[in-house]
Amino acid sequence: MSKQTALHNDHVRLGARMVPFGGFEMPIQYSSILKEHDAVRHRAGLFDLSHMGQFWLRGDDVAAWADGLTINAVATMKPLQARYNIFCNASGGAHDDTIFYRLDDAWLLVVNASNAEKMWAHLNARLPASGVTLQNEHGNAALIAIQGPKSVEMMQPHADVDLAGMRYYFCTRGNVNGVPAIIARTGYTGEDGFELFVDGERAPELWNALLEAHLDDGLEPCGLGARDVLRLEAGMPLYGHELTEEITPVQAGQTWALKMNKPAFIGKEALSAQLERDDYARIVGLVMSGRVPAREGYAVLQDGRRVGEVRSGSIAPSVGNQNVGTALVERHAAADGTKLQVEIRGTAHDATVTALPFYKRPK
Amino acid sequence: MALPQHLLYSKEHEWAHVDGAQATIGITGYAQESLGDIVYVELPKVGAKVEQFRNVGVVESVKAVSDLFTPLSGEVTEVNDALNDDPAAVNREPYEGGWLFKLKLGNPEETKKLLGASAYENLTAE
User: Fold this and answer.
1) Which of A225, A292, A345 minimises the CB distance to B63?
2) What is the pTM of this model?
3) What is the pLDDT of residue A21?
4) Could A225 and B39 be called an inter-chain contact, meaning their C-beta atoms sit closer than 8 Å?
5) B48 at the A interface (CB within 8 A)?
6) Among A120, A160, A201, A311, which one is most buried in terms of CB atoms within 10 A?
């Protein structure tokens, strides 16, 4: 039985199509995935992300402890900074990809919904005798994201902090429409925007106030369908697709987040050896030549021989309406510009290896 | 979207417009709405012989690939090539510009296995 977020009734009232995702009933779309995608790229969209796991980490030793569990640096984060990070297993595979938010008095760790139970167990199993305490707010606290070029303009009248002055990947405490929130300039769409961590009980009033105030400005409620297309265009990995317990951050092209100068962390030896050998299959971007969409699980061929598999695929409205995807392919087939084929219902369709991201927002 | 009264419907949510020995085939308003934004349609080839209720192609939305079945048997005489450039026509006007293919009917008796508008309306109201 799936759980419901604090905004469930609002989704139903807005006509959302609800699907089970990560243990929750979530909106996959309201009106149309393409229409919602368009709102985020050109105006703004509002997302319910309350299914994501929210863990609070407190104590003097949080940073040092977390640095031993993750590939990116935690201790060097400034107060109010946010940072992408990946927890690995001993083989270097990704246990989860997450964001750390450093508040003045505590750290907020946001994990994938589908990994929340696994991550809660992972953290608790490695908890030191003192110096770190954990609090699980998964399913209680809400998370609302507003994403799109008009995010600042639409949000500012409702907020008591200077939003335009906020730096990307920083956060602050404030009030939005009178609701106490942690306001973070983060997101998963490739656009400017904010993520608002609020109490579940106050989430509906905030959600509805934003939607009602900006209906005429083109603010759209957006579901997980649009979110997936947006993140794929922006080249962002999705756990279970580009990162898994078997696919390492190195294979997924997330080496930028890998801090080998940290003394020790779970997976360091394995990732170091993988980088050294440089022989691993890796995630690449694919652009299809034709109109047939590539889908997860389809075989990737080079001159008739299987060299990999599609991990995500979609039509990409912001990439000239081409069909794009990611694939895990053998090293020799991974160079930009390599001509490959995707096998779709028994027919080979041409595709070209293309650097990620497919889409970058205009500056 | 109002359901056209003069068409025949399958439980798999295709419609057929039978006109003498010919039929035009499409998917219903209910089907296109359930699928969401349609981005690609793979249709049978002209000249292909198709059998009632068998898989003859696919309809792909942003999120999903769905099999396309033919509500009637026959020989494919024409396919809607305009959908190559504008698959969204199936969403906009599923009973008109979004038609999929035309058949020379193989067995007119098969229409008895299809539903009338009111029966189909009951099916989708469940």
Assistant:
1) A225
2) 0.95
3) 95
4) no
5) no
6) A311
